[in-house]
Amino acid sequence: MGVACISVILAVGPASRYLFGKLPRMEGLKIMEVEHKIFPDGESYIRFPEEVSGEDLIVLQGTHPPQDRHLIQAILIGENALDLGARSIALISPYLAYARQDKRFLDGEAVSIKAILKVLHRVGYRRIYTINMHSPWIAGESPIPLIDLRAEKIFAKYLKTVGLGDSFIVSMGKKGREMARMVAEELNTDYTSAKSSRDKRTGEVKVELDEVSAEKAVVVDDIISTGGTMASVVRELKRRGVKRVYAACIHALLVGGAVERIMGSGAERIMASDTIPNSYVEYSIVELVEEAIRRELR
């Protein structure tokens, strides 16, 4: 009697269909686009168009804005897969929502990333892949294996292709310093980290920066949300005499007038990846998505 063939299916969720077309064909991987629609009341409908019983599923579903909708869809996809007899499910979420609230900054606050990881674990995901998670240290406390893939090398390679490989690299905070170091080492250039502090209630950002002597600088952060910190650093670099300053990030949320704020501070342009659909994508993280898939295919 022959041995039954167990397949691996890449289940492409509604949040990440824009990435699906960029992926190369991979041997041993079946593709299934998850059917979905939004009911008139705003609820999500999910359906698998083919059999998943006995199969291993890799779910490609980002949790970028609208975060709550995309998280619910990830939950429905995972629960549906196991309920229909899938052997296992893993999640690739290029941007993992709620990761910025990793502790209680004020008494009584919910630690949102812990709650989200617990929910995804209870749904049945056996592993989560994400890219440049805002709070990577939370992986040690996660109830589910959490693999944080890094995009610094991809970003550095992109800078070389557009003639910015000799730029001075600036980032923010202790975690940002590691990010700046990784990019600068790939470019064989100098870097520093700005010290920023944010008022926990008002959100006002203050920036301290070491001496900088450069013609051009790239300020890179994992996330640009409202752009307040980025704009403050750009403005300070311009004040220090840096002629050309570029704003860059992995995850471009760009909410609440962020673009106007950053460009108004003197930035040449905004450069972002495609972990989140946005109008400022200049480089792709699809090779990291491919890496996550190939890990699951082993």
Question: What's the structural blueprint in terms of helices and strands?
Answer:
Elements lengths: L7 E5 L4 H4 L8 E5 L1 E4 L5 E4 L8 E5 L6 H17 L4 E5 L19 H12 L4 E4 L14 E4 L2 H10 L6 E5 H15 L3 E8 L6 E4 L7 E9 L3 H12 L4 E9 L5 H7 L5 E2 L14 H12 L1
Parallel strand pairs: 1-2, 1-5, 5-6, 6-7, 7-8, 9-10, 9-12, 12-13, 13-14
Antiparallel strand pairs: 3-4, 10-11
Summarize the structure.
With 298 residues, this protein is α/β, with parallel strands linked by helices.
Strand order of the largest sheet: 2-1-5-6-7-8
Structural class: alpha/beta
Shape: globular
Quaternary organisation: single chain
Q: Got a strand count?
A: 14
Helical content, roughly?
25-40%
Strand content: 15-25%
| Whole-number mean pLDDT | 92
How would you describe this protein?
The chain contains 8 helices and 14 strands. The protein is α/β, with parallel strands linked by helices and 298 residues long. Helix 4 (152-161) packs across helix 5 (173-187) and helix 6 (228-239) packs parallel to helix 7.
Question: Characteristics of this structure?
Answer:
298 residues, alpha/beta, 6-stranded parallel beta sheet, 6-stranded mixed beta sheet, 14 strands, globular, disordered N terminus
